[in-house]
Amino acid sequence: MSGNGIKDLSSLDRVIHEPVRLMIMTILYAVEEADFVYLQRECALTQGNLSSHLSRLEQVRYLTISKAFKGKYPLTLCRLTKKGRQAFEGYSAALRCVTTASAF
Amino acid sequence: MLAPRSTVLTARQRAARYFFVDGFSTLIAGLGCLLMAFQLFYSRDGRTTPLSLLVSLLILFAYLAIMFRQREIVEWLKTRITCPRTGFAIPPGFEDDSVAHADLALLTLDEAESNRLSEVRQVYADRKRGMLFMIVAVLLAIFGIMLIPNRWFYVASGILMSAGVWIATRRDQPFSWLILAGFPLVGLGMVTFLSDRVVGPDRGAYLLATAGSLFFLDGVLTLIRYLRRNPLPKQTQS
Fold this sequence. Notes:
Structural class of chain B: mainly alpha
Radius of gyration of chain B: 21 Å
Strand order of the largest sheet of chain A: 1-3-2
Strand content of chain A: 15-25%
Largest sheet of chain A: 3 strands, antiparallel
Shape of chain A: elongated
Number of helices of chain B: 9
Order of helices and strands of chain B: HHHHEHHHHH
Shape of chain B: globular
Strand content of chain B: under 5%
Oligomer: heterodimer
Structural class of chain A: alpha+beta
Distance between the termini of chain A: 18 Å
């Protein structure tokens, strides 16, 4: 954010700005690691919808997806990367600028 | 007007509570108390036959396994029961709240939210105080019941333990009324039915057995509720 007021809104991270991805990022920011089923239940999404958004976030390296077996059950584990955490914090800071501006 | 609740904080608390959703941790804690009580009952006669020694060793081994490997045992069960049904999440670290709050502080949206984060810090400080209170309450209950001969101390111990458990856990994982009301009620039952000849460590053993039974029962009921609400899906994500 450069401090140019309303124009700053155009620099919001559009990858995170999408509501479903914001939900996913928020949950993953709050936990160390979560699997696909947990995210699906928390966000109330279909498998396909969640998969596509996870792929998008993985594409920009905001999260890592790893497959693991616990016992005989497969888990698709998702975890925010350092870049993802920084992006989420940056996005939050940007929103803070918006709300601070609206107070005047 | 209350400031909106931080979404990150809500997600964090949901993840923390998710750890207890299936009742396994309560169930295992109950099992530990029952084993300890059983050991106290079993060893009170001072039997030293090879069989009694073997039994004592086995109980001790099981108890130590539960004490030091509780997390692993619970996770082993969760892997088989909980993960296929409702997924898996590593709850936020309880061990270092300051780190969690440093992260949260970065998400401050406005002054009101900053104030809320200060309140959150207060909540965590309260939780630590609550845990301390629970430890003190439980120790008072156990040693009090062994040292104070008055039968009504059974009820006092029950109330102490209920108060301790409630204060310590009401934010992260509120226990059911079965436990909160159970301790004083069972204390009343012990006043009514337990012989005056039960003294000293035996009284402590009865208290432990009671606590263990209540925790175990609460864990089993929570597990049954969880399993009924969350049947195993036909297709698991791979």
